[in-house]
Q: What sequence folds into this?
């Protein structure tokens, strides 16, 4: 959600900036720290995490330095300029078709050799390139020595050592940008003679084509020799043989030469802490168990550690509600404020500690670099469901918000696998469902509440898997793409970055409380106050009671049915609706939340939670499914499927539970 | 750190955590029964066990298990402490005392603290 949101904002900025801005693209391999540098340069707070493929759309920010204004563009990471997935294509297309004034190629000091490959490809394409070697703090610690002057001499472009962590070299980077924006440079490095000859032959024939005058002919020739499909189509020339292996080899040769004098690796790299940790946590069987244990701890922490804070906030809101009730003289206004607004929004705000702790835990998993490991471990299991671990990673992100999980599927290169992942994403239990679980569980399951919540999470994962298998069988007969994901090195997250992460994600929850949830709470109050001022004869009750027969087999009360309907706006609204419909102290006819426990049995309550987990996703998620899958058909499939199964499983839960309890 | 010491520590912790796991599942001694958490503790024991299964020709692999296992035990103890603290605090706010000696699970907490020293020691060997 927050993704698409800030993207729009960025775009807006993009359209109003005058052309005197110098545009600077940040390009580099995934996970090298482009977004971190972007944040450091522009003061923005974009999403940063320790796994490849975090950024999926381009982001724009501004920076003022010297007498210049820069427009900085953060791009998704890419290994080559021959893109395969949607996010990589964003980077490639931006570079080729929008041709920014400057390009900063960001590389990873710990992995310099590999990341320089992209630099060479960029140098083939254009001039005005700066090389930023990031994470220099880590390299220094590891005993790696990099001579930036030597590198700069050989490459002919400015080379800056930076650390987005400590801020080292950021000033130098700005200085280099300023300098190039004034003068500009263009360098070429040469391929072996055989290839150079072919290049110049192709170049001269390309120069004759008028429609290609915007492109660099040398670059087009190289791409033709590599048989880049887009360029083959663009130029309409077929050079015959495929030279891509030769060209790649000569790039590697060049890099080797380049690093000979300027890069000194430390000896002690081999079986380091990283390898040791990975040896255990990516172990064939142990890895899965460890993952399970971590998940248990995360959700237990979310529930238990937040409890005292939750209690405090609850007491605060109760006191506030009572105060308003007493001090506002107009009865209907007092009721609106204390039962509608304070009761409804307050019921949701109560769960802020849980939500923030959940995000903090997810942040730790993401920032340490554990997340892709979990995907790696599950990859084998996933393969039997014709999905890859990469899809699983998207699903894991769904524990925060289903929308971000759906957005992150852009990095999945296999289209069918991507669609299936999008379709099942809503079944991962997002943070917005958590308040509902906690509210109901603490009424019905007492000490076992934590366990009930954890089992819902486990169920949500299993159900998502099963659905993926089913969709794959029914809709596609595709093969999974093998999971090719670089495992990032482990990092100790800083307090600052964790705070930033938690705030960035949690803020969204607060925004919802102030907008959608507030609005829904008021609507619910109006519906339960009018026309008679008695809940039992209100519009809300008419609405709920008219649908209640449909849910009678499940044992839901009309209040629960009404809450479910409004839950489409956002799942937290279920909490605020229930608390108004049951708890509105000044509305006659309200039964009080405690009576819920006497109206329905624990199995019905658990069935309700399963229903909440699976029935239609919130509007934001539906919009994301539509946008990312490109078709309403898929929205219908997942919504109807979810509703049907939700009903069925809630019924089964009630029957089985009723038989045993 | 000698291979022998690693083996001894692995054996020791594997046994210790298995006992604590069983104890937590059934609630025999100084703990209330908590089956799921017991299973999680048992997973921790398995990390050590699998270390013992690694061939003696790869001492580094065995050491890796000790490293992760001890960190895991430490985390579990930390979790338990915070858990009890939060529980106590909540009772305090609502105005009653809801913990006793049983709820702390001292065996787990103490082993976890010992594990944290082991972890420090093993980690040093890597830097
Ligand atoms: N130690 C250290 N860590 C860094 C530095 N820069 C970035 N990181 C960490 O590296 C990880 C990746 O950073 P991002 O900024 O998300 O990388 P990115 O290149 O934007 O990644 P994608 O968007 O996935 O392509 C995060 O965990 C950062 O905290 C640095 O200079 N030093
Ligand atoms: Mg990024």
A:
């Amino acid at each position: 959600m927050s993704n698409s949101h800030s993207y729009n904002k960025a775009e807006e900025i993009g359209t109003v900036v005058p052309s005197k801005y110098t545009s600077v693209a940040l390009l580099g391999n995934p996970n090298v720290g482009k977004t971190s540098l972007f944040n450091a340069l522009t003061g923005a707070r974009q999403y940063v995490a320790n796994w490849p493929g975090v950024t999926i759309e381009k982001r724009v920010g501004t920076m003022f330095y010297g007498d210049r204004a820069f427009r900085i563009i953060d791009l998704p990471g890419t290994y080559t300029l021959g893109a395969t997935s949607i996010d990589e294509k964003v980077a490639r297309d931006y570079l080729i078709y929008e041709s920014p004034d400057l390009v900063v190629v960001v590389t990873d000091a710990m992995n310099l050799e590999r990341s320089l490959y992209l630099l060479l490809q960029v140098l083939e394409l254009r001039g005005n390139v700066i090389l930023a070697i990031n994470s220099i703090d880590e390299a220094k610690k590891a005993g790696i020595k990099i001579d930036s002057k030597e590198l700069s001499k050989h490459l002919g472009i400015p080379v800056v050592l930076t650390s987005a962590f400590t801020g080292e070299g950021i000033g130098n980077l700005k200085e280099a940008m300023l300098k190039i924006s004034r003068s500009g440079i263009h360098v070429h490095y040469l391929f072996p003679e055989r290839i150079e000859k072919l290049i110049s032959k192709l170049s001269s024939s390309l120069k004759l084509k008028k429609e290609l005058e915007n492109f660099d002919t040398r670059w087009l020739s190289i791409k033709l020799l590599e048989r880049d499909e887009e360029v083959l189509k663009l130029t309409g020339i077929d050079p015959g043989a495929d030279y891509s292996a030769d060209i790649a080899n000569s790039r590697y040769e060049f890099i080797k030469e380049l690093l000979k004098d300027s890069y000194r690796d430390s000896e002690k790299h081999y079986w380091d802490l990283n390898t040791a940790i990975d040896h255990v946590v990516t172990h064939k069987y142990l890895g899965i168990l460890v993952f399970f244990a971590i998940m248990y701890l995360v959700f237990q922490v979310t529930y238990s550690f937040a409890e005292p804070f939750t209690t405090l906030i609850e007491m605060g809101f109760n006191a506030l509600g009572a105060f308003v009730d007493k001090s506002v003289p107009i009865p209907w206004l007092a009721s609106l404020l204390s039962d509608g607004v304070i009761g409804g929004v307050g019921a949701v705000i109560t769960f802020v500690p849980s939500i923030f702790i959940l995000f903090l835990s997810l942040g730790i998993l993401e920032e340490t670099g554990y997340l892709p490991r979990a995907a790696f471990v599950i990859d084998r299991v996933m393969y039997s469901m014709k999905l890859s671990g990469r899809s699983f990673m998207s699903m894991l992100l769904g524990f925060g918000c289903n929308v971000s999980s759906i957005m992150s599927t852009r990095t999945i290169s296999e289209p069918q696998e991507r669609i299936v992942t999008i379709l099942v994403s809503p079944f991962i239990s997002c943070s917005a469902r958590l308040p509902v679980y906690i509210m109901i569980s603490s009424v019905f399951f007492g000490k076992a509440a934590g366990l009930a919540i954890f089992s819902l999470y486990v169920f949500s994962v299993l159900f998502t898997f099963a659905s993926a298998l089913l969709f794959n069988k029914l809709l596609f007969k595709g093969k999974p793409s093998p999971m090719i994901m670089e495992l990032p090195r482990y990092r100790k997250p800083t307090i600052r970055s964790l705070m930033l992460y938690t705030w960035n994600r949690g803020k969204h929850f607060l925004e919802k409380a102030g907008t959608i949830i507030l609005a829904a709470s008021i609507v619910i109050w109006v519906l339960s106050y009018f026309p008679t001022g008695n809940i039992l004869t209100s519009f809300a009750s008419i609405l709920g009671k008219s649908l209640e027969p449909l849910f009678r087999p499940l044992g839901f009360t009309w209040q629960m049915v009404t809450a479910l309907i409004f839950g489409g706006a956002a799942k937290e609204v279920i909490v605020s609706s229930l608390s108004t419909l049951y708890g509105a102290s000044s509305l006659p006819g309200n039964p009080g939340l405690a009576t819920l426990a006497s109206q329905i049995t624990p199995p019905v309550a658990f069935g309700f939670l399963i229903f909440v987990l699976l029935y239609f996703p919130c509007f934001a998620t539906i919009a994301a499914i539509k946008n990312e899958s490109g078709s309403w058909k898929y929205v219908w499939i997942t919504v109807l499927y979810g509703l049907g199964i939700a009903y069925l499983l809630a019924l089964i839960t009630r029957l089985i539970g009723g038989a045993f309890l | 750190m000698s291979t022998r010491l690693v083996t001894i520590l692995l054996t020791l912790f594997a046994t210790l955590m298995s006992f604590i796991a069983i104890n937590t599942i059934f609630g025999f001694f100084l703990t209330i029964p908590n089956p799921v958490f017991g299973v999680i503790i048992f997973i921790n024991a398995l990390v050590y066990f699998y270390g013992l299964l690694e061939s003696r020709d790869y001492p580094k692999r065995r050491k890796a298990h000790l490293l992760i296992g001890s960190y895991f035990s430490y985390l579990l103890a930390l979790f338990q402490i915070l858990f009890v603290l939060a529980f106590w605090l909540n009772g305090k706010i609502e105005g009653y005392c809801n913990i006793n000696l049983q709820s702390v699970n001292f065996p787990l907490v103490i082993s976890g603290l010992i594990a944290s020293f082991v972890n420090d020691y093993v980690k040093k060997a890597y830097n």
